[in-house]
Design brief:
The structure is a single chain. The chain has about 525 residues and is an alpha/beta fold. It has helices spanning about 60-65, 80-85, 95-100, 120-130, 135-140, 165-175, 190-205, 220-230, 245-255, 270-275, 300-310, 370-380, 390-405, 405-425, 455-465, 475-480, 495-515; strands at about 1-5, 25-30, 35-40, 45-55, 75, 105, 155, 215, 235-240, 260-265, 280-290, 315-320, 345-350, 365, 445-450, 470, 470-475, 485-490. The protein has a 7-stranded mixed beta sheet with strand order 8-14-13-12-11-9-10, with helices on both faces. α9 (about 245-255) links the parallel β9 (about 235-240) and β10 (about 260-265). α6 (about 165-175) crosses α13. The N and C termini lie far apart (about 70 Å). The model is unreliable at about 1-130 (pLDDT under 50).
């Protein structure tokens, strides 16, 4: 029996074989896996390759799973390896499409990175150069994005990356569902998920937390709403930043509390501003760290000072840290989860939608201040009664992302930083647009457009109508009154898409400024 797997780093089919390798290259002596040939796509010039496994049994199924291949196809054994090479279309000038007519081939175009024994240049090519499937995004990407836009409009809107997820996530999901049982999981989350989150916070967020403090939640948006319901009572007074992502203030309002605004000072939230916002009846502080939409990041010393401020007033502190996996330029991040033992009893919300492109899996977590607080939260908010909870499949994917997608994540951050710098240079050349400082975190730009003398909602409408690019206006609906005079652009796409959007805006900018029709 011969198992043949076609590996490719792009979506273009067929691939013409433009380079041949008649000398099999052994990848792993334990697996009898050989590279039969190298191919280059005639459209995008990315490299692909095919591997074959020769065996007399199905024992290689488990081996393939160990190697993190996620598909296989069995065909008749061939003693003549060169003849086999010709039949599978790898060492001749034959396309993969034709190969499928002569031999079963499993297309693994997105999973080259999981071949840990493959040549490094091929692994890295698949790791960082995979193109989004925009046809799929047009069908799947909702929430102001591709599926909700006219076909000629480019959305730089909701903060949900266009980029494909890490191959480790796909592989983990497929491995899990090959065993066809999907029962309920533990109320607070799978042990491996809770441990992975705790380890991730220790490794990347300067916070040592016990896994028993972690509760799996159905997205960060759901998590912050449940935390607000847990710690607030109707009529409580809560300090919230302005501007800030609407979900922070929305969660407070849904709990029946009233809001006092901590206003930004020259684009940053300062201790003086916090003191000015605080009232005699203030019971809690809700913050977004790193901040959306400003892209600012508090230093470890500032985090410590804010936690101490809340503790001195015996106020509860809740931190939305869904952007904490998009900290740029190698900056250090300190989570408020490190202050669970403080008098402020800090609660932290984390999610996988921003840093790992997993919005559709709806998976996040709550970091409670203690194990006792976590147990009470699970009971009070319906987790123990299966009213709340998150899919086990989503937790499997998140666990793989946190444990195994480090290389993908590092390149994602570098990509975001490159596009941030590129976009700032281009947008700053537009009349009336100002970006005072580069964001320290997030993959969004919050551009000041006050000098255009056009209200942010109207400007966003003109940009879409004339340039066919959709952006998010800095209106109270999305970010509060403090966002007036700004527009937000999401940059987590390809350089080509971003440049197309910026080209359109640049070409149409004078019409946008002067055409109100």
């Amino acid at each position: 029996m011969t198992i043949v797997i076609a590996m490719s780093a792009c979506r273009s089919i067929p691939h013409e074989i433009t380079r041949e390798s008649h000398e099999p290259c052994e990848l792993d002596p334990r697996s009898a896996v050989t590279v039969d040939g190298l191919a280059t796509c005639v459209d995008c010039a990315t490299t692909s390759f095919a591997v074959s496994v020769q065996t007399d049994s199905l024992a290689h199924r488990s081996l393939l799973q160990q190697q993190e291949f996620i598909g296989y196809s069995a065909g008749p054994a061939r003693e003549d390896h060169s003849q086999h090479q010709k039949s599978c279309g790898v060492s001749t000038r034959m396309s993969h499409a034709r190969a499928q007519t002569t031999h079963e081939v499993i297309d693994m175009r997105y999973h080259t990175a999981q071949l840990t024994t493959a040549p490094r240049d091929l692994r890295m090519d698949a790791q960082i150069a995979r193109e989004p499937d925009f046809e799929a995004l047009r069908k799947r990407a909702f929430n102001l994005r591709w599926a909700e836009c006219p076909p000629d409009v480019i959305p730089l809107t909701a903060a949900d990356p266009d980029l494909p997820i890490a191959p480790a996530i796909t592989a983990a999901l497929v491995r899990y569902i090959t065993t066809p049982h999907l029962p309920y999981g533990p109320a607070a989350g799978l042990p491996e998920f809770r441990s992975a989150v705790a380890a991730h916070f220790m490794r990347t967020k300067s916070a040592e937390i016990d896994p028993t403090r972690v509760i799996a939640a159905n997205s960060a948006a759901s998590a912050i709403t449940l935390v607000a319901r847990e710690v607030l009572r109707a009529g409580d007074e809560v300090v919230v930043q302005d501007p800030v992502d609407f979900l922070v203030s929305e969660s407070v309002r849904r709990a029946g509390a009233t809001i006092r605004l901590w206003r930004a000072d020259n684009g940053r939230f300062t201790p003086d501003g916090l003191r000015d916002a605080w009232g005699n009846r203030t019971r809690a502080l809700f913050v977004c760290h790193p901040h959306n939409p400003l892209g600012t990041l508090w230093s470890p010393a500032e985090v410590q000072a804010i936690a101490e401020f809340a503790s001195e007033r015996e106020a509860t502190l809740v931190s939305d840290e869904v952007w904490s996996d998009v900290v740029l330029d190698g900056r250090k991040f300190r989570s408020f989860a490190a202050h669970g033992d403080d008098t402020c009893h800090a609660w932290v919300v984390h999610g996988m939608s921003k840093g790992f492109a997993m919005a559709g899996l709806r998976v996040g977590s709550v970091i409670a201040p203690s194990r006792a607080a976590a147990d009470t939260f699970v009971s009070n908010q319906g987790f123990a009664q299966t009213i709340e909870g998150v899919s086990t499949l989503s937790q499997i994917a998140a666990t793989a992302a946190l444990r195994d997608a480090g290389a993908w994540h590092s390149e994602f951050l570098a990509h975001c930083a490159r596009l941030r710098d590129h976009a700032i240079k281009r947008l700053s050349k537009l009349e009336g647009v100002r970006i005072p400082r580069a964001p320290e975190a997030t993959f969004v730009l919050f551009a000041n457009v006050q000098a255009t003398a056009i209200a942010e909602d109207e400007l966003a409408r003109r940009i879409e109508r004339i340039a066919r690019v959709r952006v998010v206006p800095g209106s109270p609906r999305w970010f509060g009154n403090g966002a007036a005079g700004h527009i937000r652009l999401s940059l987590a796409t390809t350089r080509e898409v971003l440049d197309e959007a910026l080209d359109r805006m640049q070409a149409a900018w004078q019409d946008i400024l002067h055409n109100a029709v």
